[in-house]
Amino acid sequence: MRSRVLQHLWREKGGLVEALWQGMRCSEATHYRHEDPERLRERCARWVEEFLDAFERNPRAFGEYVRAIAEDRLGEGYRLDELQLVLDVFRQCVWKLTVESLEDRQLMVEYLDLATTILDRARDAAARTYLDVARRGAARVHDTDQLFRGTEAMNVLDE
User: How does pLDDT run across 55-92, given as a tens digit for each residue?
Assistant: First the structure.
């Protein structure tokens, strides 16, 4: 079954790159939105390739890739919420493309389960990297309201 999922993923790679590129250009991630369109497309293609390679070989590898990217982007002045937003856009693209293109329900569930695990680990890797960089004094801790936007339903600190 996994080989069928991988075949599907590689067939849909171009659509996933395009959806991620469009999503990032329309997102609130200022640095990505104002980036040179061709450079952004290349970055999207690399994100997708790394994701697919991780899906095929080692699910933890995408988290390692995101950790390296986060280190670079934070050094370039990107904020954590921008990196997190990219991963949210990526998740939306993956889910939308999967639901629209896979009719086999079991295959869809298997794919979404592994894809979500990979993307959740990557999101955690970006946050840990941000904290590591902030601990070294190389990143400014931003407004936490922005960092936790979208997680209001999980907010247990106000209770």
Answer: 888 989 999 999 999 999 888 888 888 888 889 999 99
Q: What tokens does 48 get?
A: 């997708």
Residue 83, Cβ neighbours under 10 Å: how many? 25
User: Cα angle vertex 61, ends 55, 64, to 5°?
Assistant: 145
Q: What is the pTM of this model?
A: 0.78
How long is the chain?
159
Neighbours of 28 (CB within 10 A): 12
Residue 98, burial from CB neighbour count under 10 angstroms (0-12, 13-18, 19+): buried
> Are the C-beta atoms of 31 and 83 separated by less than 8 Å?
no
Q: Which residues of the chain have pLDDT under 70?
A: 1-2, 138-159
